[in-house]
């Protein structure tokens, strides 16, 4: 991949990535970068060494070697704490996509070496991909076209890691490293307990949910998050953590709280003890097709054209 004043290549077998910077060339060992990410996540060399199944002295030497290669201090360490420096925070931001790209590269090369001609499509619950997959398969009978269900938490992760060629995603997502093709929009609804005071109304406004406890990341519903009168669950203790939409719906039904979901998602998860009500005055949920910005396969925009034509 060309840069303004150099090149970037990966030699996955040796674990080396060559990064060309202004006036300098630095060979970076991707194994050390992986070690760095674990230390940055733990902020504790002992726990990081346990996760990596290596000794702490070995890990410390690897991090010092990485700092020497990059000519930058990555951590501030004392007897009580381990903290990232500004350089460390920058490396952490860039390291995860770099490692995902290396993993995806290795996976695609191995598939090609074994003659595996597959095309994998990710989809979110409530989004129907049948027509697009059938049309694409008819054009490319030589391909084995597969589908893989994703979730709110990993809808773009599979693209970065090379598990998915394309993925139907619901915004917002982190757009870095992605090409996005808008496909369609759909209204959002409030999901409430069936006996809730708002259940059965023809529609509500987002302000009606101000006193309610939102059982999802508030950043996913900025209209609710930014309500000046919001009290939703404050002082009610820690928010429960949920791995799936099914768990959230069970909590709505049994313990209260609300969700704001795209209409198709709410319909996909039928539950007799919850109700959904349209919300007036908030924007729709937008569905896009995502794929890796670094890939140049003509199959990617071709599938995107087919998917867009279906909507």
Task: Explain what this protein looks like in three dimensions.
It is built from ten helices and 15 strands. Strand 2 (6-11) and strand 3 (16-21) form a beta hairpin. The chain has a five-stranded mixed beta sheet. It has a four-stranded antiparallel beta sheet with strand order 1-2-3-4. The chain is flat and about 65 Å long. Mean pLDDT is 85; it is low at 1-23. Helix 1 crosses helix 3. The protein is an alpha+beta fold.
Number of strands: 15
Contiguous helical run count: 10
Largest sheet: 5 strands, mixed
Structural class: alpha+beta
Helix share, percent: 25-40%
Computed over alpha carbons, the radius of gyration is: 23 Å
Straight-line N-to-C gap:
34 Å
| Average pLDDT for all residues | 85
Low-confidence stretches: 1-23
- Strand residue content: 25-35%
The sequence of SSEs as H and E is EEEEHHHEEHEHEHEEEEHHEHEEH
Q: Any idea what the shape is?
A: flat
Main sheet strand line-up: 8-7-9-15-10
Please name the defining characteristics of this protein:
311 residues, alpha+beta, 4-stranded antiparallel sheet, 10 helices, 15 strands, 35% helix, 25% strand, flat, disordered N terminus
Summarize the structure.
The protein has helices at residues 30-42, 45-52, 56-70, 86-113, 130-139, 157-160, 222-225, 245-255, 263-268, 299-309; strands at 2-3, 6-11, 16-21, 24-29, 75-77, 82-84, 118-123, 144-149, 166-170, 178-186, 188-193, 204-205, 259-262, 274-280, 285-292.
């Amino acid at each position: 991949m060309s840069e303004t004043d150099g090149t970037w290549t990966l030699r996955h077998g040796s674990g080396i990535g060559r990064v060309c910077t202004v006036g300098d060339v630095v060979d970076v060992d991707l194994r050390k970068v992986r070690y760095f990410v674990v230390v940055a996540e733990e902020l504790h060399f002992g726990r990081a060494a346990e996760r990596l199944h290596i000794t702490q002295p070995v890990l410390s030497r690897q991090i010092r070697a990485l700092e020497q290669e990059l000519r930058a201090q990555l951590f501030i360490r004392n007897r009580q704490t381990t903290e990232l420096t500004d350089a460390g925070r920058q490396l952490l931001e860039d390291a995860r996509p770099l490692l995902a790209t290396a993993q995806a590269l290795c996976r695609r090369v191995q598939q090609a070496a074994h003659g595996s001609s597959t095309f994998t499509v990710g989809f979110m619950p409530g989004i129907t991909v049948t027509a697009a997959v059938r049309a694409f398969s008819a054009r490319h009978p030589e391909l084995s076209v597969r589908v893989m269900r994703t979730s709110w938490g990993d809808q773009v992760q599979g693209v970065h890691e090379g598990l998915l060629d394309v993925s139907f995603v619901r915004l917002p997502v982190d757009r870095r490293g992605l090409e996005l093709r808008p496909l369609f929009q759909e209204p959002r609804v409030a999901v409430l307990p069936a006996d809730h005071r708002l259940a059965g109304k023809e529609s509500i406004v987002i302000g009606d949910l101000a006193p309610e406890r939102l059982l999802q990341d508030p950043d996913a519903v900025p209209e609710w998050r930014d309500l000046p009168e919001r009290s939703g669950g404050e002082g009610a203790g820690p928010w429960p953590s949920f791995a799936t939409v099914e768990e959230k719906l069970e909590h709505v039904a049994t313990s209260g709280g609300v969700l704001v979901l795209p209409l198709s998602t709410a319909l996909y998860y039928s539950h007799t003890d919850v109700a959904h009500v349209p919300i007036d005055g908030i924007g729709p949920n937008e569905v896009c097709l995502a794929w890796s910005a670094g890939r140049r396969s003509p199959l990617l925009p071709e599938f995107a054209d087919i998917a867009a034509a279906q909507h």
